[in-house]
Write a sequence for this structure.
């Protein structure tokens, strides 16, 4: 027993009673582990199945053998390899920005870059940054704002007239302005209107910060995402469609120089290791040419939405490879996920507090290797499980 165990027990018990207790379950990467019971993965973010692509595995192992298992120190000490810089140049080109920087994870990038940017407002205007943030932004963005000590001014999800009214309301306040949103929302699979956001940011002299975690690799020209050089800062991850781990920010050269000097998650954290650099480098080589895979992914998502919607099952405002089946009640969402598991699909129920109260759901994340038959079976399985519950 530790000093706090009785408090932990009390709080966890409450979550358990509410049906929101989080626990860990081991799974297999079924594309990698041929011994495992075959499941169709509609849960992970491996949208293009790159986590097991031979080129990623090969380059990751080659670079580990050539350059070592670890980067040995932070980038500013002696951790910068030429490979870090080459990959950063590749990302800058891919995202049509002047420069880019690597981070160990997307969470770390948002959690440390946002506070660094907020500091700029204090030094330039002696007033806190006014951060206008979409209500459904990812937890790492909220964490970045909390770490900066700023209170977010949150606009209704994807409601740009609400955003504009808040910018107007705050117009007389001192401080720099920043708008933060995702380009594809992780739990809803809908998209932000990037060009409209760009115009609003321009009109109100706000810095546009865009999280492209779920768009990178999957959407836009050559899979480079929805904002190619449009936002002031584009952040994205290698942990989803790009199949491995890590993240980037891209923007002007001066922005990146500033982040090198002021983002604590960049300065005080060990550099990304060679094996990971190898996997990232290989994914960046493959992604621009994966048109067929992207086409199949989006065709599958359209089919799934159509089949579910025809059966009166809502998929919200999804227009991407992320298709939510909004169920509402947490226990019901868990039971549908369990039912799907029994039918051979790996799918997870997402419950509050990850999503707003009353919107527990299956978050179906489609992969490019799924067939039309897989999608039809999935839709029928969901329709059957949802109907069983109603009757
Ligand atoms: C929108 C968004 N941003 C950031 C992250 C964090 O990325 P990572 O998993 O690389 O830490 C996620 C992860 O789920 C995400 O969905």
């Amino acid at each position: 027993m530790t000093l706090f165990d009785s408090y932990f027990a009390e709080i966890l018990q409450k979550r358990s009673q509410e049906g929101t207790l989080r626990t860990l379950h081991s799974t297999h990467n079924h594309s990698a582990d041929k011994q495992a019971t075959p499941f169709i993965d509609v849960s992970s973010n491996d949208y293009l199945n790159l986590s097991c692509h031979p080129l990623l595995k090969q380059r990751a192992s080659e670079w580990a053998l050539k350059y070592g298992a670890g980067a040995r120190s932070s980038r500013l000490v002696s951790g910068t390899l030429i490979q870090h810089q080459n990959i950063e140049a590749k990302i800058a080109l891919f995202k049509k920005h002047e420069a880019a920087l690597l981070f160990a994870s997307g969470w770390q990038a948002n959690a440390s870059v946002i506070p660094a940017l907020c500091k700029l407002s204090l030094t330039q205007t002696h007033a806190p940054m006014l951060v206008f943030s979409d209500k459904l932004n990812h937890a790492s963005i909220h964490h970045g704002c909390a770490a900066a000590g700023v209170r977010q001014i949150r606009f209704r999800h994807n409601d740009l007239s609400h955003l504009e009214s808040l910018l107007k309301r705050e117009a007389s306040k001192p401080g720099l302005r920043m708008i933060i949103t995702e380009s594809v929302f992780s739990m809803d699979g809908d998209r932000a209107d990037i060009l409209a956001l760009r115009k609003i940011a321009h009109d109100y002299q706000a810095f546009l910060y865009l999280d492209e975690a779920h768009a990178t690799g999957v959407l836009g020209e050559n899979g480079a995402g929805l904002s190619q050089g449009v936002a002031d800062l584009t952040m994205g991850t290698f942990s989803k469609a790009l199949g491995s781990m890590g993240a980037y920010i891209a923007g002007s050269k001066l922005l990146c120089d500033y982040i090198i000097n002021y983002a604590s998650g960049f300065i005080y954290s060990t550099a990304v290791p060679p094996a990971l650099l190898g996997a990232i480098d290989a994914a960046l080589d493959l992604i621009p040419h994966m048109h067929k895979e992207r086409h199949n992914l989006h065709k599958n998502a359209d089919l799934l939405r159509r089949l579910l919607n025809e059966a009166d099952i809502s998929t919200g405002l999804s227009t991407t490879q992320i298709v939510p089946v909004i169920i509402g009640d947490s226990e019901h969402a868990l039971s549908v996920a369990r039912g799907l598991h029994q039918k051979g699909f790996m799918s997870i129920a997402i419950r509050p507090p990850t999503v707003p109260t009353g919107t527990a759901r299956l978050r179906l994340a489609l992969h490019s290797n799924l067939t039309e038959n897989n999608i039809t079976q999935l839709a029928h399985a969901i329709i059957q499980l949802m109907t069983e519950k109603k009757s």
User: Anything to note?
Assistant: Residues 290-388 form a domain with the Aspartate Aminotransferase, domain 1 fold (CATH 3.90.1150.10). Residues 105-107, 110, 138, 140, 182, 186, 211, 213, 237, 239, 247 surround pyridoxal-5'-phosphate (CB under 6 Å). The first helix runs from residue 5 to 18. The CA atoms of residues 54 and 282 lie 10 Å apart.
